[in-house]
Amino acid sequence: MGRYVIRRLLQFIPTVLGAIFLLHYLTSLSIQLTGNPVRALFGDRRPSEAQMSAMADSLGLGDECLTRVGDPCIGLYFERLNNIFLHFDLGTNFTRRPVTDIIADGLSYTVKVVVIAIVFEVVVGVAAGVLAGLRSGGFFDYLVKISTVLVISVPVFVLGFVIRDLFLVKVGNWFRDSGDWPDWFAFGVLSPVYKPDYPWASLIIPGLVLGAVSLAATARLTRTSILENIRADYVRTARAKGLPEKRVIGVHTLRNSLIPVVTYVGVDFGTLMGGAIITEGIFGVPGIGREIFRAVTQHQPSVVLGIVTVLVLVFLVVNLLVDILYAVLDPRIRYD
Can you tell me the distance from the alpha carbon of 208 to that of 294, in angstroms, rounded to the nearest whole number? Predict the structure, then answer.
């Protein structure tokens, strides 16, 4: 196990370096094609060359390579790596605010939204998949198959706007005006935007919207895995030995069926972190997803690179934990 973890940690190095280079190249190419974003800081004023150069140098955007279209800016890439890994300096945004402070302020909101989404996805998705698999061909099986296809076919941003404008605004106003419901529900859970007075309640709907598509995929994956394992020899053997049906399903069938589901949830963690950019924008959640969206629209490469680098590291650690979890679900799996 120890050697496996060390090998996986070493694999982090090329993955992180590759991800940072890809982001570095794309942000550099964007500046090369559209012009230095520092110019926008002056508004209607026309700065002198010296002012532009001084401002660009202070923000790390004064390298000559940023004026040559297609130049990968290798020197600037290694300079950014040096700042990130040797000095833990992720840079600043255009208002001189350190990116580490931006991440520290917004990460807790994004983590809460993603945790709500994962709990919703795993608990409801696995339960629906198990029931559909055990009752294959029945009403509940068709209900799960049809409803999951409908949810998967709707993009997250469409679902988010529909839920916010139709449900949280129109239906939510009725709950708020009636005065018969507790404030945490009427003004927290049903709030169209994030409310600091209800830090968890107002994040429930954004989390459910974020996890809806993943829930549908988890339910279908669990259903298929249950159908495959319930006909396996070891399940028939367990029944032949006279084990109770609950133990046959709960221990022998479900435990093995969860391996592909756990793999999907680990990979899906990255999708949820990316989907948070859209969800936080729709519901006004002050998380790092909204900060990434703002940085992209304002062409702030340091903010994009800093936040995404942290997200890549979090994604890799989560997937390492998922791989380690395999041995818990199936003792036959060995890492050495």
Answer: 23
